[in-house]
Amino acid sequence: METQTIISVKEMYKRFPMGKTEFTALENLNLDFAQGEFTGLIGPSGSGKTTLLNILGSLDVPTLGEANVLGKSIGKLNTHEAAMLRRESLGFIFQSYNLLAVHTVFENVEFPLLLLKIPSQERRKMVQEALEWVGLSDKIRSKPPQLSGGQCQRVAIARAMVKKPKLVLADEPTANLDAANSHHILKTMLTLNQELKTTFIFATHDEKVISYLNRKIYLLDGRVDKDEVVTHNK
Fold first, then answer.
1. CA-derived radius of gyration, the chain
2. Ordered domains of the chain (ranges, CATH)
3. CA-to-CA distance for 143 and 132, rounded, in angstroms?
């Protein structure tokens, strides 16, 4: 059965102004991602990992070249179209959580479903399921300031996955988790990847994450240094 390509990056550059010059964060990048991949962007700080994730997530646009995500050319989307792509099809996991401190865990995870106008009873069921995935069913009424850093990160992961998006973009998702929680979350993500064909793309240098990946893309100075497919023994 042929695997569908859902992301295509062609001759893409990303440059940022630096005083009177420019900094090239991504240079002549060519990459394709298939539906259902469990892939990592690996490289040192400044290699372009987060910049690439931001473009794939329509949070930024290429300077030159093209990034086509789920049939949408990122550089050609207006603000509303980019927001709709994120709302309907993408899940984000940020290193800094980006939780709403005045709202409960339930409300934080529910937020993407409100944007999609999903009925109340269905929302509750989906939120409870997502919190079970990350082992936080008992914190449903807590607020982020009452949680540890690791618990906040797990709430952020539940929020990203609650709508079962087609694509999850994760920037160092295990940075604030201990080993046991990291493995639990990664196994949960892998299960969703396998059962729902959700595509996961990580930016990471965490060896725990890297050990789960089916494809490793090594970036160096904004270029692909190495791209390897990994076969895991069952």
1. 18
2. 5-102+166-229 (3.40.50.300)
3. 17
